[in-house]
């Protein structure tokens, strides 16, 4: 196992299998020194653990947990392209989408779930630029979706 996967184990987490695409795309693509992930839903064992809008059917704390699952799925997608997560130089950018009830404005706090997980697992390499965007609906009624761009070494 890599040092990154050892850190995940210390945190009581395990890198999941790559989530199969729901449509016509790849979970992650490498271009030069960068890996770009597709949007990752909080799938666990092939299913969403929660559905609906944040601020209505899903509370902000639960949505934050789901964003961390999205980040784990994104790390799995990165590993599928580079083979070893220790090749990560840094997470460059994270984009988080939150399916939001009309009056919900806590998108940054929800996406902190992904950002905090990446920081815990990768340390300074996990510090990144970020966008947190509220949207009307996400695929299969997921509450959150996260994508990221990662710089990697050969």
Describe what this molecule looks like in 3D.
This protein is α+β, with helices and mostly antiparallel strands. The chain contains 3 helices and 5 strands; from the N terminus they run αββαβαββ. The protein has a 5-stranded mixed sheet, with helices on one face. Helix 2 (60-82) crosses helix 3 (107-122). The mean pLDDT is 96.
State the end-to-end CA separation.
Answer: 18 Å
Structural class: alpha+beta
Low-confidence stretches: none
What is the H/E order? HEEHEHEE
Quick check: average pLDDT? 96
* Radius of gyration using CA atoms only: 14 Å
Any idea what the shape is? globular
Instruction: Let me know the largest β-sheet.
Output: 5 strands, mixed
Q: What proportion of the residues form beta strands (DSSP E)?
A: 15-25%
* Individual helix count: 3
Strand order of the largest sheet: 1-2-5-3-4
- Count the beta strands: 5
Percent helix, as a range, is 25-40%
Write the layout of secondary structure elements.
Blueprint: H1 3-10, E1 28-31, E2 34-37, H2 60-82, E3 88-99, H3 107-122, E4 129-135, E5 144-152
Helix pairs in contact: 2-3
Summarize the structure.
The chain is of the alpha+beta class and 154 residues long.
Keywords:
154 residues, 3 helices, alpha+beta, 23% strand, globular, five-stranded mixed sheet, 5 strands
């Amino acid at each position: 196992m890599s040092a990154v996967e050892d850190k995940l184990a210390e945190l009581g987490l395990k890198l999941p299998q790559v989530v199969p695409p729901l449509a016509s795309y790849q979970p992650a693509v490498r271009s030069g020194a960068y890996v770009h992930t597709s949007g990752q839903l909080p799938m666990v064992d092939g299913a969403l653990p929660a559905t609906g809008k944040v601020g209505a059917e899903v509370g902000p704390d639960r949505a934050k947990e789901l964003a961390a699952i999205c980040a784990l799925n994104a790390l799995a997608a990165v590993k599928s392209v580079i083979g070893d997560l220790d090749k990560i130089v840094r997470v460059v950018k994270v984009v988080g989408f939150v399916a939001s009830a009309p009056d919900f404005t806590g998108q940054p706090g929800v996406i902190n779930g992904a950002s905090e997980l990446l920081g815990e697992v990768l340390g300074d390499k996990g510090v990144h630029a970020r966008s947190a965007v509220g949207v009307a609906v996400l695929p299969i009624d997921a509450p959150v979706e996260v994508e990221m761009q990662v710089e990697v070494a050969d």
